[in-house]
Amino acid sequence: MHATSRLRRWAVPLASGLLIAASFAASRGLGAAAAGEVLMLAAAVVAGGPIVLAALRALRARVVGIDLLVSVAAIGAVVIGELWEAAAVTFLFAIGHALERATLSKTRSALAELVAVAPDVAVVLRDGEQVEVPAGAVAPGQTVLVKNGAKVPVDGEVVGGTGAIDEASITGESIPAEKGAGDRVFAGTVSRGGFLQVRATGVGADTTLARIIHRVEEAQDARARTQAFLERFSAWYTPAIVALAVVAGLVSGDVVLALTLLVIGCPGALVISIPVAVVAGIGRGARDGILIKGGEHLETAARVSAVALDKTGTLTTGRPRLTDVVVLDPALTRADVLSPAARAEAGSEHPLAAAVVDGARAEGLMVAGLPEHTDPVPGRGIVAVVEGRRVLVGTPALLEAEGVPDDGAAATVDRLAAAGRTPMVVAVDGWVAGVLAVADAVRPDAAAMVADLHAAGVRRVVMLTGDQPAVAGAVAAEVGVDDVRAGLLPEDKLEAVRELQRQGHVVAMVGDGVNDAPALAAADVGVAMGAAGTAVAVETADVALMGDRLHRLPEAVRLARRTVRTMRQNIVVALLTVAVLLAGVLLGGVTMAIGMLMHEASVLVVIANAMRLLRRVVRLRPVNFAARPALLGKDAEAPASPEEQDPSPRLGEVGARDQLARSA
Description:
It is built from 24 helices and 20 strands. By secondary structure, it is of the alpha+beta class. Among the domains are: 1-107; 115-206, Calcium-transporting ATPase, cytoplasmic transduction domain A (Distorted Sandwich); 289-317 and 442-557, Rossmann fold; 321-439, Calcium-transporting ATPase, cytoplasmic domain N (3-Layer(aba) Sandwich), CATH 3.40.1110. The strands form 3 sheets. Strands 1, 2, 3, 4, 5, 6 and 7 form a 7-stranded antiparallel sheet that branches. A 7-stranded mixed sheet has the order 8-20-19-18-9-16-17, with helices on both faces. The chain is elongated and about 115 Å long. This is Heavy metal translocating P-type ATPase. InterPro entries: ATPase_P-typ_cyto_dom_N, ATPase_P-typ_P_site, ATPase_P-typ_TM_dom_sf, ATPase_P-typ_transduc_dom_A_sf, ATPase_P-type_domA, Cation_Transport_ATPase_IB, HAD-like_sf, HAD_sf.
């Protein structure tokens, strides 16, 4: 199929080239001048026929394009007897067009690679038997078997077995991820060892891979602002060249000069300069697990001067753990404080709730069942009714709003917050029982990511969080952000983004696409991290980073800037070529054939320059062997647990978010 496509692509220039060679052989080798002219005319007709048809189709759509310029020049050359010029112009244009299509096809190779990894078949477990079926025929809920070396045919959850999955096609990560019961896997990834039983949750068009392919298809066809401008420019530039040629011909009485102006005025390199760079840039990003929504967002990302980061789940692992249970009522025990708090948090979706519930379970406390009533208080905490008792878990502001006396909780809250932990006051039936504290591990690569953003040209990196100022300050000091704003509600984050914009910054906001929706919508570029498997993030974010590695963020900024730099270089090449050729025609020495040759050469230069974007730029980072994640406020010399040592959280663990942030 590919061979047939290539043959069709090169059939016209090949036939025209053979006819030109035969013409020279007949007229100069055999002395048959008449036969040579016929063959040269045939060469012009073979190469020029498709060009004339394309020009007529464009005219029917009221578009005056490059094909019309070449058609008029070639027909005019035939009329005045310049058969060699006509054949040369159409032959070179046909070669350039074939090369252009071939190279554009190559720049879309990332999409072709994504399509190629789509699985064809699946092995489904039915009534204890292994049955091979088309991948699209798997029904949600069915169990699929993934053996060593096989492609995962569906999105799903591992329900049995262990294995290593190469997820490069989804996240861009080259190191296989270990999978076990409860982990998620994605269609198009490849097993590199082990045996997995996977319960299908997404099949066919509902898989992450299908969404990525759809998004890349749309993105590569989306126009950049510069491209839209150039299209408007060429809409009047092409008629202007026609008018110039007519005037030059009438004034000078030189028809060849007029036809030559038509040829050298072709803005082919200018028209293709932007789309080829956009396609190559978006393709490079797709290979690296960076989905960019389109050329407009690519250009905007290149101008980013400030990055606003959510703290929890972005700069930290998003897996907070219970670190302290402080009993303030002498009549109560540790369990009397932790148990009702965990029961109340069992009805909360807030990320800190999971840390409290898990901590209670780890101490052997029963957390079964949901509270009778749950009332989340955004930015302050939660009020719940547990077995008839009114339980409050949250900030001192929540206690004040509910009329609960402090009873010494503020001092404990300040002490825990100063240690870099997130405290939560627990009150039962109107009296303070104690204070809980949780802490989140800073990602080991967070500081390097902030440094990389600065190196990529970002002037300000700002952390936005709903957490306590003391906790936020501890994280900020460790990762090196330029500014930290703590205790924020969702609307406060929105205002923070707008303030940065009022200061003249082009702002990228990094969040989860749901809880930070107002700020993400207001930002010039909305970035979703760890978006693999998240349909909302893939479809709505301007930039979606499929993996959970922080270095993807500065890589996305650098890629956008490389792409825009390439666009500008291409525009300079195109305009410079036209200027040089115009000067050459006016000063003499540039013929129609030479003009077309230079024109096609400039097209190839522009395409080759854009194709450099397909190469991956490897940046070497210094290795800090002493670096390791540490719980905020925890003794730095304490040995890190295996979870803390793992710099790569499992896919899908997007982690804690700050929209309903609660802190002391």
